Structures
1.
Amino acid sequence: EAGVTQFPSHSVIEKGQTVTLRCDPISGHDNLYWYRRVMGKEIKFLLHFVKESKQDESGMPNNRFLAERTGGTYSTLKVQPAELEDSGVYFCASSPSPGQGAAVFLADEQFFGPGTRLLVL
Amino acid sequence: SQQGEEDPQALSIQEGENATMNCSYKTSINNLQWYRQNSGRGLVHLILIRSNEREKHSGRLRVTLDTSKKSSSLLITASRAADTASYFCATDAYGNNRLAFGKGNQVVVIP
């Protein structure tokens, strides 16, 4: 079974430019998450998709960040315009949904991709 | 908001020795997970322990969870050079899929 994949692995752009990161979750996983780790800080949650819907986007830092998951398969995270403080590693993760009829939506193991290393100059 | 926080220590041990690292958090959780990140690689899930569990084993890994103290420990027994990595704990709260990560513990295993 293929794991979570992310593209590109590295991106170097200039301040003010636009960058789009892509994440392909594990096939069949309804849940898709974006996290990022900026220099010297903890890995921080950005947002959570359930299929194509944004379940929780409370971690998105500002409106320069736009995440989409059209069709409920892969997801993109666009940063426009990029700023210096956006540099870091952007991780994507996916997880399956609990069985049908579950009364409580329990979090489960999240499978992470290798990350995209973004450097904004 | 809840947050996993490892003891901010870097461990340097000899191959064959055991490595222990701790993690504390602040609010009620559904589960606590430990991840490993090798240099330049992604996060690899190691083990998940639920709030109603106290101890869990997986191979050379042993995780404990003390919900009364809001803390967890990860023990790696008989360490190998390949265990050299950063180790993160992550927590999530009931009904909340957001993982809150700690700063990570750097472990170096010397062959």
2.
Amino acid sequence: EAQVTQNPRYLITVTGKKLTVTCSQNMNHEYMSWYRQDPGLGLRQIYYSMNVEVTDKGDVPEGYKVSRKEKRNFPLILESPSPNQTSLYFCASSLQGVRSYGYTFGSGTRLTVV
Amino acid sequence: AQSVSQHNHHVILSEAASLELGCNYSYGGTVNLFWYVQYPGQHLQLLLKYFSGDPLVKGIKGFEAEFIKSKFSFNLRKPSVQWSDTAEYFCAVTSSGGYNKLIFGAGTRLAVHP
């Protein structure tokens, strides 16, 4: 089944403890992206990647890192999480860009930082 | 900067009522427009998209949207809603700058009562 898989689905952590949220897609998509969803703000893009080793900042990149060493994987790294990063996170992928295909979204990761 | 406005944050309807959710965007050039739906506890799913051609776009589950360029609008409609349409609906537009940025509105929560 074609899908975007995120892990974990739920995560509670403490301030300052490094964490990684994994994202993998099995559709051979070139484009991948991370969004965070907050009430009243919709979804905001954190980082995106156009291909292996090519990444760029979105609208809210502060406090996050990403890497794209393989085409299928696009992990989101929080080096030192803070409570304002408590949010619902979505990974998404697209075959050749949003303009033509839109995004396919993962099931989301609900992160709580205490 | 490009932006998307969804006029209604919460909508409550009875089953069989007609639905129209407003969406306006700020960019005056060529745009690609999307409506996504998020059912409770689930990820975003594509309802419909507009790239070019017929401004009346039909999507899944009986939804349609009309692109009115002069009004910078892309309103979502459904003639008769069902309880199962209870969800949050997001309008989104591609940015003028890149292939990967999908800019979302804040979302509209729809509750349909039996």
3.
Amino acid sequence: NAGVMQNPRHLVRRRGQEARLRCSPMKGHSHVYWYRQLPEEGLKFMVYLQKENIIDESGMPKERFSAEFPKEGPSILRIQQVVRGDSAAYFCASTDNRVISYNEQFFGPGTRLTVL
Amino acid sequence: GENVEQHPSTLSVQEGDSAVIKCTYSDSASNYFPWYKQELGKRPQLIIDIRSNVGEKKDQRIAVTLNKTAKHFSLHITETQPEDSAVYFCAASINTNAGKSTFGDGTTLTVKP
């Protein structure tokens, strides 16, 4: 059973470009979370999605950032017009979240975004 | 919303000594408390977790305690080894409808040989 997959692992963008980060959850998981980790800091929640639905986007900046989790395919975190402050590691995590189970989250390897 | 505070931010111990990391949370509805270990450049990995209906849980050299009344929980690592050196994060979440996890800011543990 493959774990959570993220690609690309490293992404370099110039200021003003767009960044697209992809996350494929573990098989059977239908819930995805995106977190941002600035250098030497903790994980900050950005958005929680289920298939075709955004459940909680309270941690995501209102402008330039968007996320989706379509019926088919990976979840995508999109950052438009990137700025240097967007440079960070972006982790996604997935869970199956059955009613009887606690939401243990399994993390992907992360995408390290560098904005030049 | 939930607020999780973690202390200390850095911790240095001699090999073989014990290490204790403490976290407090604010939302009394939180009922799931995982601990993650993150090595440099790698993903966070779950090392132990505790549910709110349990006060203590052990797994070999690692133990976690939970005090629901005081809203704090702690990670205890005994007989530390150099490979325990990493950043450790605590988190708190509410099980209902798969709520997001709120993480502490992390503790950088260094075990000196």
